[in-house]
Specification:
alpha+beta; Fumarylacetoacetate hydrolase, domain 2; 2 domains; 19 strands; 16% helix
Length: 289
């Protein structure tokens, strides 16, 4: 099953197009894309019955974040060996966890403002929690995952690394710094949920390429480790980490500039496309509006 947020309404993304969930379910499920995660098991069972309803074109320009308002957003650092190596850091003995504040979330298409000159890219697989998780075992980790989507953990490196203690959450939470999409895909739709090719390209040139089988801490282990500390709630997001190829590790360093286009892709899920603009352009547009 593939679901999406089409202009603020929950839809099933089928081969024929977009099926509006509220209409197809005769109001059993609402239009709010966020609300469905609180009833995920019930919704999944309903969707498996191949609901019928009017089919609309799946207009990519109208697609928004599949999970628009999560209560908790977790980020995992140094979760690929090659990324830890390029950063010159030892492999973590336990997941390095930070948060991205929810106001950083954005959809899979559009423009993102650059707040500084050292903004970096980080393509990531994002897991969405579909069932409350507390003290979950690794063996049961996948049972608590509603689905997977593509994410970018954009990072303003100067802010992230400023001061005596790094400010990961602030450096990664500017507006637009957490785009996700284009759809949420349930694990059963994928040939191998533990081994997905992911990557991103800058202005048509690949800059990151890896497979999720290279994760140090797998999705089930992340669910287990996080839920041992606090409850994971339906609709929460877990950005699982980025592989090697970030701009800060290049020689010379390469950061995002106004006019750049970044395409982020995960096989079996889809791609996101973003163009970067100067902060003054966005501020000016907001002032005029």
């Amino acid at each position: 099953m593939r679901i999406a947020n089409l202009a603020g309404r929950l839809v099933l993304h089928t081969d024929a197009g977009a099926v509006d969930v509220q209409r197809a379910s005769s109001g059993r499920f609402g239009a709010d894309p966020q609300a469905v995660y609180e009833r995920w098991d019930e919704f999944r069972d309903w969707a498996r019955t191949a609901p019928t309803g009017p089919v609309a074109a799946f207009d990519e320009a109208r697609v928004r974040a599949p999970v628009p308002a999560p209560r908790q957003v977790f980020g995992i650092g140094l979760n690929y060996r090659d990324h830890a190596a390029e950063a010159g850091l030892e492999l973590p003995a336990s997941p390095a966890v930070f948060t991205k504040f929810a106001t950083s979330l954005a959809g899979p298409r559009g423009e993102i403002a650059l707040p500084g000159s050292t903004v970096d890219w980080e393509v990531e697989l994002v897991a969405v929690v579909g069932r409350r998780a507390r003290d979950v075992s690794v063996a049961r980790g996948w049972d608590h995952v509603a689905g997977l989507t593509v994410g970018q953990d954009l990072s303003e490196r100067t802010v992230q690394l400023a001061g005596p203690a790094p400010q990961f959450s602030l450096g990664k939470s500017f507006p637009g710094f957490g785009p996700t999409g284009p759809c949420l895909v349930t694990p059963d739709e994928l040939v191998d949920r533990d081994d997905l090719a992911l990557g991103c390209a800058l202005n048509g040139r690949p800059v990151q390429q890896a497979r999720t089988s290279q994760l140090i801490f797998s999705i089930p282990e992340l669910i287990a480790r996080l839920s041992a500390v606090l409850p994971l709630l339906p609709g929460d997001l877990v950005f699982t980490g980025t592989p090697a190829g970030v701009g800060a590790a290049r020689n010379p360093k390469r950061f995002l500039r106004a006019g750049d286009e970044l395409v982020s892709t995960i096989d079996g899920i889809g791609d996101m496309r973003h163009r970067f603009v100067g902060r003054e352009r966005v501020v000016g547009a907001e002032t005029e509006g």
